[in-house]
Each structure stands twice: as C-alpha cells, then as structure tokens.
Design goal:
The structure holds three protein chains of three kinds. Chain B has three helices and three strands; from the N terminus they run ααβαββ. By secondary structure, chain B is α+β, with helices and mostly antiparallel strands. Chain B has a domain at 5-42. In chain C, 39% of the residues lie in helices and 13% in strands. Chain C is built from 15 helices and eleven strands. In chain C, β10 (434-442) and β11 (445-452) form a beta hairpin. Chain C is globular and about 65 Å long. Chain C starts with 5 loop residues before the first helix and ends in a 12-residue tail after the last helix. Classes of the chains: A alpha+beta, B alpha+beta, C alpha/beta.
Chain lengths: 478, 95, 483
Amino acid sequence: MRSQWETIIGLEIHAQLATKSKIFSGASTAYGAEPNTQACAVDLGLPGVLPVLNEQAVRMAVIFGMAVDAYIAPFSVFARKNYFYPDLPKGYQISQMELPIVGIGHLDIDVDGVSKRIGITRAHLEEDAGKSLHENFHGLTGIDLNRAGTPLLEIVSEPDMNSAKEAVAYMRKMHELVRYLGICDGNMQEGSFRCDANVSVRPKGQKAFGTRAEIKNINSFRFVEKAINHEVERQIELIESGGKVVQETRLYDSDKDETRSMRSKEEANDYRYFPDPDLLPVLVDEDFKAQIKAQLPELPQAKKQRFKDSYALDEENATILTASRQLGDYFETVVKESGCEAKMCANWLTGDLLAALNKAGLEIIDSPVGHERLAGLLTRISDGTISGKIAKQVFEEMWQSAATADQIIEAKGLKQITDVGAIEAIIDKIIADNQDQVEQYRSGKDKVFGFFVGQVMKEMQGKANPGEVNKMLKEKLK
Amino acid sequence: MSLTVSEVKDCAHLARLGIEEQDISSYAKDLSGMLDLLTQMNDLDTDGVEPMAHPMDQVQRLRVDVVTEQVDREKFQAIAPQVEAGLYLVPKVIE
Amino acid sequence: MYNKTIAELAKSLRSGEFSSVELTLAFLDRIKQHGSLNAYVTITEDLALQAAKTADIRLAAGNAELLTGIPIAQKDIFCTEGIKTSCGSRMLDNFIAPYNATVVDKFNSAGAVMLGKLNMDEFAMGSSNETSYYGAVKNPWNINAVPGGSSGGSAAAVAARLAVCATGTDTGGSIRQPAALCGITGLKPTYGRVSRYGMIAYASSLDQGGPMTRSAEDAALMLQTMAGFDDKDSTSVDVSVPDYRAGLNNSLEGLKIGLPKEFFGEGLSSDVAATLEAAINEYRKLGATVTEVSMPSLKLAIPAYYVIAPAECSANLSRFDGVRFGYRCENPVDLTDLYTRSRGEGFGKEVKRRILMGTYALSAGYYDAYYIKAQKVRRLISEDFKRALAEVDVMMGPVTPSTAFGIGEKIDNPIEMYLSDIYTIAINLAGVPAMSVPAGFAKGLPVGLQIIGHYFAEDKLLNIAHQYQQVTDWHTQIPKGFE
C-alpha cells in the first residue's frame, strides 16, 4: 500500500448460531431444505403471530461474551429495525440496538509473529433474513424464507485493524473461536459465517477518520483480503485524483474482483429502531452466568498457555494444537494413553497426522487413525521397538487399515533389531567391502560416517536400532 | 406544530404507503392536528423518569431449543398472491 | 331463548329444553333477519351447525363444559383456521387464516359454537366502527348512531341478541366504549391475562382481548375460558387463573370506591354525569364508601397513546406487503410499486394516518421528543394508577363523555374522535383491568359505568359489577325491534 496513507478497518461478523430451532420460533434451522419448508407461521410473519426467544441462542451469546472477556449485559433489549425488503417477512428485523447482550471485549490476533489486540465494540443477537433467488422466474425474483429467523450473533469490532492482512487474521481467529466454542459451524459456503467490512483511509498522522465505505457480501477469507485491498486502492485513487469518498454500502463482486455501489441501498435509510413490544427485556443474572461459566470449555488462550507450561510445547505447536477443541483433546488423550514425551506426541500430531488429514480434507474428529492407535504407535517408538522412520511407514499402513501398530509391526516384521551380534556381522561386512571410505574416514573426513550408517541401515532394511549402529560403527572405525 | 407536504411524502415513502397526490394535504392537516395534541406532553416534566415499554414489569421467558414446528408449505402458500416452485414471487429485486 | 344468560342456556341444553343445534339455528335466523345492522363480516353457518351437533353429542355424553353448545361470535381480529379473518380491512379481505388464535382454540375446545366473525374498525383503529372496509355497524338502540369501536360488531351483536356473547379486543377502549354505547357488559382484562397469539396486532403493548356479554356473570364464564398463560406469547403472564364465578356474590359492604376527579370535569356531558351519580349511589346502598382520588397525569394519556400506538402499529402493519398473504395490487411494475400500491390500496384512511404518525414519531430526530417522551409519560400515568389504587379498592367513572354519536358525525374530524377516548385510554397505558357496565340511559341511549381495578383483580371487578346487576336491570334491557 502507498506509504503516505493509513488504512482503517472495522469488521462486522455475522455468525449463525448452531441452535436446532430458530431464534423466535420452533422451526428447524437445518440447511438445505426445500424452499419455504422450514418457514413456520412465525417466520412468515403471518398476522397475529408472536416471537418467543430461544434460550440456547442467549446461552451461546453469553458463551461468546465470556470467551472475548466482554461485558455481559444483565438486561438486554430487542428492538425492531424497520425496512422493507422481500426477504424480510415482517417488514422489520428483530435485532438489538441500544442494549446489546454482549458489550465491550477484545480478541488478540497474531500477524507475522506480532500480537495485536483488537477491540470488540459489541455483539448482539438478531434474526437472519430469508434469501432472494434471482434465477429466472419470468423476470421475477423468488423468495425462500427457510433462513428467516435463524439466530445470528453480530460481532462488531472497533476500527482497530490497519491492513487487509490484519482483517483476515482477525476474521480467521474469530472463525476459529466460534467453532472452538461450538456456537457456530463456521460453514462459509452455506453462509453460516459472513462478514461486512468498514474501510476508510486517511493520510498518515491525521487523527480524524476518513469517510468509510461498508463492503457487504464477503464470504471467504480470500475475498476479505482482496475486497479490502481493492477498496483501499479505490479510495486512495479517488482522493488523490481530487475526488471524495462517499459513505455508502458497496458490494464485493468476487468474479470481477471489484466493489460496486449498491444502488438499492443508496437512499438514506432511517431504520426507526424502537424496543420490540412483543419481547421483554432479557435477563442474564449471576446464576445464569455461573451456570454457563461452569460448562464453558477451557478457552484457546488459556489452553495454549497450559500446553506450553505443562507439556513444554513451543509456541508454534501450542498454537496449532489449541486452534480446535477436538485437536487439543486428541493431543492430550494421546499423551496420556501413550505415556510418551509430550513433545514427540505434539510433533507427530502437527506433522504426520495433520498433513495426512489436510491431504484427505478431513477434520480431526473424522481421522481414520484414532487416538488409541496413534498412542499405540508412539509407544513403540519410545520403547525402541521401531525407529521413527519405520513408524512413518507403520502410520501409513494404519491410515489405510484398521490394524494396530503392533499388528502391522508383527505382520511386516518391522521390529527393530537390537541383537548386537547380528549388527556386528553386518558392520564387519560393510567395512570389509568399503575400504576406500574407511581410509577417508580415518584420514579425518568425518562426513563419511553417514555413508556407513546408511549402508548398514540399508542392509538391515531400517530395522537396526540407530543408536546401537552408531555406537558400534564408531568403535570399529577407530 | 405542523407537518409539511414533503414530510408526509417522506413518511409515506418510508412506510411504503401509496397516497393519492390530492390527499396529501389533507393528511398533512390531520397529522399536524395530531402533533399539536402531542406537544401537550411537553407540559409535563419527565426528567429522570424511566421510559416504560411494557405495562408489566417482567423479563423475557426463554424457550427450550427444540424443533416443534412442522411446516405445511402448501397450506401457507395457498393464501399467497404468487408462488412458483415453492418460492414467493416478487418483481425483480435489483441490488 | 336468545335472552337467556350462558348459565341459563347451559341448564336448558342439559335439561333437553332445546338442543345446541336448535339454539344455533335460532341465532343464525336472527343474524340473517338483522343483517342490516352489519354486525357480521362472515357467518359460518355450516361450521356452526357442525359444531352444534358435536356439542349436542358432548352434552348427551355428559362431558360438556359450561360453554359447550353456546353460540358465540369472534371479533374478526382473531385468526380462525380455514375461515376469512379480515380485521375489517380490504388488505385481508382474501385472507383465510391458516391457523387458530389461542383464544379461538380455547373456545373450540370448550365446545362453544362459533356463529361467525364480527365487524370492527379496520385493524382495530377507530372508535365508531366507521373505518371498517365492510361499512359501519349500526347501533341497535338507534340505527343512525354508531355502536362504538373498534369492537363495534361485537357490541352490536350482543346487544341485538345476534350472539350470546362475543370476543372483543381493547387497545384504548375498544371493548369498553362500544359496550357502553350498546348497553352491554365488557371487560378489558389486565395486560397479559389473555393470550395475544393469533390476535392481529394493532399496538402490541396495549392490545388485550376480553369478553363482551350481557351480564357480569356471563363475562366471568367467558373470561374463565379466555384467560391463562400461553407459552406462544412472551407477554402472557404466568399467574394462575382464579374461579371467576366463585366470588360473584361476595358482599360489597365496606368496598372503597375512588372517583378520579379528572374523570368528572369539563367535557363530561351532564346527562352521563347524572346517570353515573345514580349508579354510584346504588353502590353506596350496597355498603360502599366513596372518596375522591386524583390522577394528575391523566390528561396526557391521549397524546402518549397517539405516539405509542401509532409507533407500534407502523411496524406491526409492515408485514402487509402483498408478498405472502393478503391484498396485492394489479400488475406491479417493480418492487416499490408492489409495496406502495398494495399498501396504499389495501389500507383505509385512518390506518394510513396512524402508520404515518407512527413512522414520523419514530423517525430520526423525533424519536426522543415523541417516542421516549411518551414512554416517560406512560410511566407517570401508570404510577398515578398505582397511587390511586393503593388508597381504594376500585375506581369508577364514565367510559365515554357522552352517549353514542351519529354515524358520520365525527368521521371527518379524527382529533375530536380521539379525544372522546379520554376515559379509557389511560387504563391501557397502565395495563390494569377495567369494565364497562350498563348503568342507565340518557335520551334513550345506553350509558356505561367504568370500573377500574388492580392488576389481576378481574374477579373483584366482576363481583362488583354482578352485585350491581342484582339490584338493577339496565343490563337486561332489550333495544326496540330486537325483542
């Protein structure tokens, strides 16, 4: 970005809460049903229907608030946001305005190894709208209200981010967090996790914010970065060529990689918020909070510190292993079951296991190699039955079958040879066959030592105990 | 207080309420009369009074998160002005 | 048979004097005979006869409830599955409700026979029933006079014996005022006492359904069925429902009646005042003591109401957009055209006036001056009630400043119409229960006495009204031509 300009970004993230039923009705929230088969009388806004608030949605909002160390409002109020749109059945959206359930909090992000604290202004509960389908119905638009009434948590950040990279890091961290907490499935293709970005630029050193544009419709991490970078460029070019940024809503078009003004939202909206008289103030008292706190999982930040402290993990491994609750649980179970050194377990998880999962496009809970089998494998490394190298081979076998490490080692005869006599015989043979190299070694070329190790291991099909081979080779080559 | 014709038009637009051009001034007159009535509230000192949104001093009751509604789409759409393939149809929405 | 009370009818149905089918046919005949009153929007003849047959079976089997087989009618604001629910509006002229209001379900399961749906002011906005898309209802006491509103069809039907009893709804007096103008008994319960689910909303924080009957005893029976907690309505109150008939005969000895001085000042017509004085004297004879109380903020009830109710209605009525149900204009050229014409053509003038007022009061820059101010005034009014009711058992006063006015007399002057609700509106702002009880006549037209009680003191109000009805016969008077 051009050096004389500073970028200011704030994000509004909409996370669909993973409840079974809608926020104000008993209709299902399951994704992908036939159009309008999950829109009940309340969701359709039929005359006379009334909303009743879903307890789980409140609970999830409070869980989120606790996870970002935020103020939880003892009383929060639902308000009506009034506007007409065909995907909004009642002509108003039930949202929260003046008294949101979650107040000021924060989330720490890491960008290029530097930690930065991003302020969270608020998070409030609201209902999602339906969907407009623009396929061709004789030039008409079709409305599917299945999504109408799905609970949303709108998480509003402070304008604390200064680059698209930071915005992406924040969004990723938030995505990780809501999934970790189990309050959102995070499925971005299905729209469970969406983001609007408020972007402005100002000359470096200027205190006042520039005029911001709101970019809507950003539904992937890649697009956040591209959309923001594009918008920043557009604003700088506009200002530098003597123009002015106008406050407006812009739509990101991922096909063209550009943002464009949303004409339909151009007119100044006056949402006429007022407290919804059909709903009463939501009470979150100390009892309710204590109850949630008791069930709250260990939060990623705390867990990471604990992993560093009690398992002596480095920053990188600790970060990776605490990104998801399931991965952390898997790791701890493997450590416990294998009795192996935690660091070795961590390296195996973040290395071979995650690589294999990524390649297969699987989550840890769907791993073909469960914690029991992996623990069994690691035990055999640490008790010297197999070498680390052979273990990789065993792991690959395990990935393909349901066999345990012991069964594979047994069946394939992979057990490490620790019989000194057998190793000695091989070593003697190698030394006899490679007199040139022996000369070189003895004349001071230490590097040649590796050649001997390699030859011995090759001869023994990798099954020799490497420590033993080293020791004996050194002795014989003296 | 009085409400101008253009203010009436603005409100009518916000409320998506079609009003015949020739009726606007009569609405403006009626609404101005109402506003005169409303300004009487200024006679009452309400400083420090908590606004009252509900007659009963209660808190929101919470519903257990279970699916209780089975949707009969045909029944609901039998009363709709225009539907096709299970969708409600409206004139083209331009974003 | 159509002059009998619910209790008397229940007895006759059990003794075999007549069946529910016979009773229902008799009422259906009367309804057709007096069609010119325009009380009904829809007559559900077939369904009524079916329900009557079922009721007769229940009665014969001995598992009937008190309301089983009793012909009642529903204000057309309550959703009735498979039956047109118009809310008095062109907007819903084609609306066949796909579900039942909780109140309707309750009457159905009690075995009551629904004769049809009753005319009303459009979306319950009006005090004369003249804003209905289906035309004005006529007052049975004088067919050139209004029956009051918005539950005008309910009041006229009950007064003219076109139903044993009817449901009404009351947002600013819509049960009590037509009850008073038609000489029947009407009760607006405590806010939250009767479920609002399926009752098409006008102003959600003020709306409350209630019974409209010929006597306090009938009102007790009807309320018994209507009242109760509903988990589909967040504002429904989970307070147990007492037996409303149990205390009807309690003595009024020592009853403390408060007369708010603001109810008896300028604006109250002298003949209404004289009638009320006589009624209050009856209570003195029954052992009550009468004192004056004061409600200083009362005069601001109308302005506060005309901010809060329009504000809430402006949002409540946004769902009528021509997309999922109700009226849609012909050949909309685009989305805005669809909205503005469907709503412009579907709503009548009074509804539009209130939507515009509410939109204005909530719009940027005016919210604090109007909406917040009105909510603060509302609290002060509510505190007035609490203070006054702490000194007395009930308050009494007029329901309306004068008797029924002529059809067409006030319809072009909305403000004057609004001002006539001065004695009823404050009660809705506070949420307390209140009744209108027939208390006599002035120049041949009925006068109602209003009785206002503590939160959830419906049983007390019914007791007080019932005792009065034991010593007076105003409530048994029949309008000429309807004997």
